[in-house]
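Objective 1.3, modelling of assemblies. Example input:
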Amino acid sequence: MTVATALAQYNALQSKLSAYNHAMSLIFYDGATTAPKKTADNRAHALSVLSEESYRLTTCEETVSLLEFLDAHREELSQKDRRSVELSLKDIRELQKIPMEEFVAYQELLVKADDVWHDAKENNDFASFCPILEEIFATTVRFATYCAPEMHPYNYCLGKYEDGLTMEQCDAFFAALRQKIVPLIKRITRAQQLDNACLHGHFDVSSQEKFARALMRVMGIDEGRCGLGTTEHPFTTSIGSHRDVRITTNYSEEDFSSSMYSVIHEGGHALYDMNSADDLAYTNLDGGVSMGIHESQSRFYENLLGRSEAFVAHIYPDVVACFPEQMKGYTAQDLYRAVNRVEPSLIRVEADEVTYCLHVMVRYELEKRAVSGELAVRDLPTEWNRLYREYLGVEVPDDTHGVLQDSHWSGGGIGYFPSYALGSAYGAQLLAKMKQSVDVDACLHAGDFAPINDWNREHIWKYGCLIKPGELLESALGEPFDPTYYTDYLEKKYSELYSL
Amino acid sequence: MTVATALAQYNALQSKLSAYNHAMSLIFYDGATTAPKKTADNRAHALSVLSEESYRLTTCEETVSLLEFLDAHREELSQKDRRSVELSLKDIRELQKIPMEEFVAYQELLVKADDVWHDAKENNDFASFCPILEEIFATTVRFATYCAPEMHPYNYCLGKYEDGLTMEQCDAFFAALRQKIVPLIKRITRAQQLDNACLHGHFDVSSQEKFARALMRVMGIDEGRCGLGTTEHPFTTSIGSHRDVRITTNYSEEDFSSSMYSVIHEGGHALYDMNSADDLAYTNLDGGVSMGIHESQSRFYENLLGRSEAFVAHIYPDVVACFPEQMKGYTAQDLYRAVNRVEPSLIRVEADEVTYCLHVMVRYELEKRAVSGELAVRDLPTEWNRLYREYLGVEVPDDTHGVLQDSHWSGGGIGYFPSYALGSAYGAQLLAKMKQSVDVDACLHAGDFAPINDWNREHIWKYGCLIKPGELLESALGEPFDPTYYTDYLEKKYSELYSL
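Predicted structure (tokens):
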């Protein structure tokens, strides 16, 4: 075998695997958006076959020897091929440690879990979801032990979403945030509260959808390659490659800002995914490199841009055009203040920027303890409610507005939540760096996202998974990560808003 | 190998293939309903990989020897397994005759063709579609020659949709219809025309969708297993098994009856597909047995039931509830007469029952000549327009309302059209038989489809592909097929309506 023939085989394999990913992502997306209600078992059947086949292709002897051959010749490979092989080998060495039947059974379990979670959330019925959630936690721990027996299983979970992240780092990071955020919230609580009445009323779904599409256009999202769907919990997924991306949202008829900011958030994910360099399509380097970096983009657009005075001023006429009756008598400044009102609340995805990280901390604490075996899954609701009381000072009325609100656990995403807080902090530092060369406020005022998107494309998006997340971030920032950019940003913005 | 182990292997293979079918149907459905506009190439990539893999599984040596082993032991198999093996062998022997690269390239071509056809139809631009349509016709002829060199290629095409059907039979069948229908149309043209003003006005899409769902419920379609989407051209597809079926419709804001009857038509297909015996799921016996039988069900619900006086009387209050303003002053009898107005027109899917078969005859003539090499694909528009003038007496204003109106050719469905006419005729004879034991009119008056659906399930649906279409039809009818049931039905119904 020559390196050239091996590479050709490897590329063909990658291309094949991306077709399986296409099918599986689409089946998942269909289940969340369009599929009739009683078809989960039918989807589970197809997914189990396809994931088994994809697993077999990924781990079969032929693939392993191909990868080992290429790895042995790594010096002769381009940077791109070297990185791709390195990531494949990493994946394969992990997958090999998980018995195939268990891997396939877990995929099937997740499909069913999604369905059970939806019903449980709708009916405020944690008990019906508990057994399947127990199985998800148990499998997560078992797989972590298979893959990295030397590691604490929760560190393994964290590392899946942010390479190298540990509980120690998270503890330190969250402590730093808490030290600044908790006193800030106290000062805000004592100040004159911001009014957000303009967000409330009746907003019909079709006007909201029209507005959502307007937001996507302003953000510079190519609608020819990015769809918009409706789901219980908003998410973004690529279908097979960065050439077809879907975002979803959920419309609240009582508050248009809920879908507005979920569209901007998912739109940030979509921009990142859609803007991998085109030659990364159908390889394992296509799309975002880690969930921390991913959330740095989504929360960048959602908050740092989307809740800025300049952007709100720009988008205000669109809001008025879509909701003329409801916005009567409210100025752009009213809207800016409304979307930045700070108020400890129940739902993470609707939380303001200041209290948001406290929502994440609750989940982090619970996951950490559940994975460590210190907390039984059946006790999650009680502990959830206790921590919401302790961290946010709110009483959780029911599990629908508590432990059942997020789709992450039912999707197996244990260890994901810290990415949101990390991403928020990355984003603040990225914005500071971007402002050295781009007049961000002027762009937002003008609704011209091109210079902002260009900066992100050049420094982050185009690389896909070519560069490790830590290196990518540091190279974009030009300095090490420092969460004080984020806490300073929050202090400054909210001191002004609340005249502290 | 024992028969038992061979059967276990065979069932595993069938189950695997159905997962590939699930993925491919869903990718197609997504492309037609939901996918962003510029993603056809991305879908083509995934489909080419999946269809190649499915082709490989179907035709590999291992599968062939397995099937030959089972075929050699056919006497030991259950009727179900015997029929399944027989169909698989038939497919495989055909597929083996088509070089794999050509098969895969054709699947990719069809994905692109769908996109090109949509744009061509939208822009009245046959020229942009012509090269790809030429390729589709050429490939159809080439594949027919590979598979059945002894046969006229168009007979091979016809047989794909209705086992054993030939041009000779079609010619005779259409001649019989023409002999009765053409004079009937002449008598109708001389009579007092029926008024259909109540169908026209402005009907918003969301009310039409609400009405479509009401129709599905009345028809006894389980919405938990049957979705409703929106597409350019309505269709029905199973997703992996009869446990998940999707129908689509197209809403005309000027005429609600267009989507109404497409929903009932596709609903008939869906009922057939959804009601295969449950143990046929994930086998090649799941779903309808031929397109002629399929259309006998769809056109049965659409016309024989859906345009009957009894059904229109039953559904009238729902129409009024959805479109109260537009229906003001119109009675159920007005609606009945409106949906049965006979008028030679341009669009097949909107044609009345009497002229419908003439639309089919145009397509049949053109396909037959194009496949035979007597007509160049580039000349289809001119010939289309000429035949519409000759058969229907209408002038085709542009290709959007002419040769580009249907999706069948862009989907490779050459030879499909005659099924519509055959199905219509099968349906009339089935209705006559059903009426011997079911009081169909009383059921329709009461909106109680259960006894009708039960009859169809017992006599047709539950068999899936267990029985050959000809045998299935004759066993349901209790006598040979006879198109005079259909022409008699048309004569009687329209003589009454038009007081001939």
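Residues 167-497 of chain B form a domain with the Neurolysin; domain 3 fold (CATH 1.10.1370.30).
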